[in-house]
Amino acid sequence: MDVKITKELIEDHGINEEEYQKILKILGREPNYTELGIFSVMWSEHCSYKSSKVHLEKLPTTGKNIIEGPGENAGVVDIGGDLAIVFKIESHNHPSFIEPFQGAATGVGGILRDIFTMGARPIASLNSLRFGPLENPKNRYLLERVVAGIAGYGNCMGVPTVGGEIYFSETYSGNPLVNAFNLGIARKDRIFKGKASGVGNSVIYVGSKTGRDGIHGATMASEEFDETSEERRPTVQVGDPFTEKLLLEACLEVMKKGCIVGIQDMGAAGLTCSTCEMAGRGDSGVDIDISLVPLREEKMTSYEIMLSESQERMLLIAEKSREDEVKEVFSKWDLDAVTIGEVTDDGILRVREKDKVVAEIPAKSLSDDAPKYNRPMKEPSYIKEIQTFNLNEILLPKDFNEVLIKLLSSPTIASKEWVYDQYDHMVRINTVVYPGSDAAVFRIPGMEQGLALTLDCNSRYCYLDPYKGGKIAVAEAARNLICSGAKPLAVTNCLNFGNPEKPEIMWQFSRVIEGMAEACGVFDTPVTGGNVSFYNETLGKGIYPTPVIGMVGLLDDHRRHLSQWFKDEGDRIVLLGESKEEFGGSEYMNIIHGIERGFPPEIDLDYEKRVQEVCFEAFKKGILKSAHDCSEGGLAVCLAEACISNNIDKIGAEISIESNIRADALLFGESQSRIVVSLAEKDIQTLKSIAEKYDIPCHLIGRVGGERLEISDEKRAEPLIDSGINTLRDYWKGAFEGYFNEG
Amino acid sequence: MKFGVVVFPGSNCDHDCYQVIKEVLNEPVDFIWHKESDVRGFDCIVLPGGFSYGDYLRSGAIGSFSPVMKSVSEFSKNGGFVIGICNGFQILMESGLLPGAILRNKNLKFICRFVNLKTENTDTPFTSGFEKGQVVRMPIAHNEGCYYAEKAALDELKKNQQIVFRYCSESGEINEEGNPNGAIENIAGICNKEGNILGMMPHPERASEELLTSADGRMIFESIRDHIKKVK
User: Fold this and answer.
1) What ranges in A282-318 are assigned the alpha helix state H?
2) Is A92 an active-site residue?
3) What ipTM was predicted for this assembly?
4) Which residue of A has its CA nearest to B52?
5) pLDDT of residue A715
């Protein structure tokens, strides 16, 4: 098919004039239609990171345990012995808005392939989801279908979904975020890379047949939304988890044979991306004949075959003489495996249709020569305006019990049981701490050690102050791991932002990265990769900057871990850190007063680190029974959760605090660097001396027991909070159900 | 003695069953590929949970036509012991080895959580280690787990003491509150008339170690092991 390359066609492919000139220079001629399509997807924001690269370079990416940092399909970290962990987070925001079930499902499918491509068996999934308020039926529909999509894919794959986070804010109405994380375990000496090397080696296509689904998915993810976006349903792929399960088993089996030179999944930009990236990394060329590609539909053009994003497909590079071994394994699993080409030494991605060459492009030009922009930046005008905020204008609520109940039943804070009950979070029998605690904890099969995982980001803080918000996201992730008894190891991130062509968005992006980079340095948690999702805008309105941090921590012994809930009657409750009069960006201000402004809480990373050291050292000494970090909803919500979040049991607490700050700040303010721990009375002195060593305040604030949560200020006769824990639990647990039974 | 765990395409609890038998029970165990037709040498065959053949068409429907199922059927007719868990239970029903059928959960959603089960029959080789009426904790994880049988079949089940486990409340009452999926008469697990085939929706292999908050399920594997060792 000969299609004339016109100005309109180039524009439709999202390629600007400057980029087109570059293409002409690389090729030394005008591209044909297929080539234009290939450049278009590879140079799209989604695949090329053209706007983010210059900023991402500021993140720390190396460390003594880091085997593979950014640039590969996923990051790889040494965990001792023969084993390594392989993990990554990726967004599937745009498809999930257009078709929530398949969008979310294929998001899970994609991240799983990224992990097993590297030779790792996926053992745990998490997800970070963000929607507009549930009062809106469209948002309820999106949440319900996204959760069903994640469940449908992950459950069938037999990979447990062990945790994550869900936030609700108007900013995500019309632009929900679906970020999927997966972690796998691999043998250190059997890590596979997406690399085409060895001239003459075979390029083998395996997995599902190719159809027309998902053509230009990567380009779609690189544009804003408008009223017509839902008409783009055909660009969303359809997932088949059953085939992916077979693909997973077959790939892991064939990798043991030692005949695989390189492997890459066909995700965004499908066959195009896998061929040119593998050739690029291998300093080689790839020559394929697309008439050999197994097709699901008739009369597909070279353009369509190269750009299809059909799911559950992989590209393998195998030793020439050992093709049969590969095919034998795939035939055992009833999957297609077809040799479609070979590795060459001329550095060219050459696509043929039988004898006719339909595309011929220097492979490296598609990845390495992709445009790189240092886009203009400008502080948004809203920043100064929202920071003007007078605390004295906020009236003290009359009834704090009512406030606590409102917060506990607000969807961002409420129990997510309605969601995680739909995920198989136990399969593979490694999950040691089930969803609902600060971090998911599971054992590493066959080993003493365990892993803790968390995803975190408070995007309201990032909106109010991107730099501080970036720091807090990392600090909170580390704190969550510490509260599980794990030592933070490394980070993967999913950076969800608006349109990078707007200087204000680029400013947010750059400031968030600076904050994250600083914090990752302090906690010694290098960034091993991740994903950037720009253009999260509908009708010109961008989302709050949402840098989701996925952090992985290591436990020496999976049997020795911490969970957030109180355990035994009579235990003492201690607050590590200090509560200040900080309201800005809090859930309390948002839910109770309807205000989203002010300064987010202060964060001193050195202080934060010391608070975490105290908790970790006390845990190591074996004196802690529970630990829970203070985050959304402040101290009162933290204490309530410690009473009610254990699925098997619940227990009350009696708290008495001496404080000089406003009562609402004390209860619901979100001062950072605070952890509530519980321990036996006899161990109090030990904890105090550890805190003293690190110069961190250690306040004895109460005891565990009874069936009520009572919080008093020593200066007042009446308690601030006095609620039965059954009542609190019912509101907290029933909130989600309430929204979905209504409609 | 030797256990066998069948691997269908799409099985995903095969590893868990294998691991519990091997590491927790310390008994010999092998995987059995679904294309296999020879199951000689095994004393007890486990059909594990998962999504055999993607559960396309109907849960367990295609799995029941797998080559290995012919042999499993023969094996059970000769007195061999078979446990079908979750998808394995669905396959047993689709194969006609156990009566009844499975519908979608009452709430039309996948449910993964611990439930309470009342042990109704301790006279089977799979449950002899339990106390009669004992309330045990095991997780369920299914989208289609709502057991159904017509009245005649149900009467038959009752008459022959084939109901092995029922969903119940924490204190052991058989009521709606304790029924997670709408199963008729709270039925969670049944056996055949001869008592050598057990099918259940809950996952005993996920509740076989204290670390995972319940070790109640281990008793099923231990009971059958002890029984086989005694008769052998």
Assistant:
1) 302-307
2) yes
3) 0.97
4) A242
5) 85
